[in-house]
Amino acid sequence: QVQLVESGGGSVQAGGSLRLSCVASGYTGNINSMGWFRQAPGKQREGVAAIRRDGTTAYADSVKGRFTISQDSTRTTLYLQMNSLKPEDTAMYYCAADSRWAPSLSTFQYMHWGQGTQVTVSS
């Protein structure tokens, strides 16, 4: 079993920055890909960024150039650096992990999910 705990959310003004963290614990040896997803009220959960064990990344078009996903050397802590935040980035942000190799932005790929951390961007 894998546990994921997110932190770092908060409220910022448009143009500001936040850094999200996700710590993985439990049986993490089989994790090959991790990702960040978000869900705004009334909308479906969508992929934001993903990273594979070897560092290969994938980003949603809406965040390219503004968000950066990374992981620490132990690959048990995942980060999302969010710059130039916009009001439309407001959502609950979730960390996810899976044993599959592809750094997918699809929610269907991921077996393990965190509880989420709220990000609110005001104009």
Short overview:
The protein contains no helices and eleven strands. By secondary structure, the protein is an all-beta fold. It is globular and about 40 Å long.
Notes on the protein architecture:
The protein is mainly beta and 123 residues long. Helix content is 0%, strand content 51%. It has no helices and eleven strands. It has strands at 2-7, 10-13, 18-26, 33-39, 46-52, 57-59, 67-71, 77-82, 91-98, 112-113, 117-122. Strands 2, 4, 5, 6, 9, 10 and 11 form a seven-stranded mixed beta sheet that branches. The protein is globular, with a radius of gyration of 13 Å. The mean pLDDT is 96.
Count of separate DSSP helical elements: 0
What is the H/E order?
EEEEEEEEEEE
Strand percentage, roughly? over 45%
Uncertain residue ranges: none
Number of strands: 11
Secondary structure blueprint with pairings:
Blueprint lengths: L1 E6 L2 E4 L4 E9 L6 E7 L6 E7 L4 E3 L7 E5 L5 E6 L8 E8 L13 E2 L3 E6 L1
